[in-house]
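debug: dumping io for the single-chain case to check the tokenizer round-trip. Nothing else runs in this session.
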Amino acid sequence: GTAGSAGLYGGGGGGAGGDLSVPGVATAGAQGLIVITDTSGDPLTATAINDDSTGNSVPCANIVPLNNPGCETQPDATKTYTFTANTPNVTYTFSAQAKTAAYTNYNGYATVQVKVCDVGQVSDGNGGCQAADVCTDIAGPQSISSIPSGCQTPNPVPGQCIPNGYTYDAANQQCLNVPALPTLDASSFTATRVRAGQSSTLSWSIPTMASGISCGITPIPISGAGPDGSITYLWNGRDNPFTGQATSQVINGPTTYTLTCTNNQDPPVSKSITVQVVPQVQEI
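debug: decoded output
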């Protein structure tokens, strides 16, 4: 990947200077790039990387374009130095220097640092490295420092942060013991009978509701539930049984609604009811 870039410019009165990008990150075993671009006002006569005027420069063969015998020639050309980062957790420091028409010695020791991350790691945005999404069993990226509460580092299974016997509470971003699912019986989910063209009131009473249990109604009621039919967000986290009501769609014939609860590990439990239409009686 591109590790970093350095731009050289001529300095008035103080010699040539350097203007560098933010620190870059390379991956061990991959090739990093250091780019020097001429943005000078004072004409450049030579440019170099890591040159201290004693020949202690990076290998010329790794610089493009190369014009032997010295890689410092072609000063106005954009030069790319390619290096192979084989050692992880090491920071490389590269210095960019220039000679100008006014300053015949190398000046402007501007530097760029390249942090080498190990395979499977990415930059943490602060000059360090972190595993790339350490919790693959939890939606969204997590770093070592942001594993949700109650979860574990990916040991012994890489990428697994939800321990066995636990479930992930996405609303509160934490791992919880898998709660036992409630028993749903005839009193757990009821509905009122209505005339054709009216809506029914759907009522639920869920015993032993607990964090880590998600419940919802299908088909989705027109009110009293979330846009996906969920009713879990209505629970205050304390009351048992968990009770509430929702309004069905307009009923024009027998319609079945189902209340389902899951803990994301055991087979879900459900209770279905059929909303009946009250027959209309016409006197003759």
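debug: round-trip ok. The chain has no helices and 19 strands.
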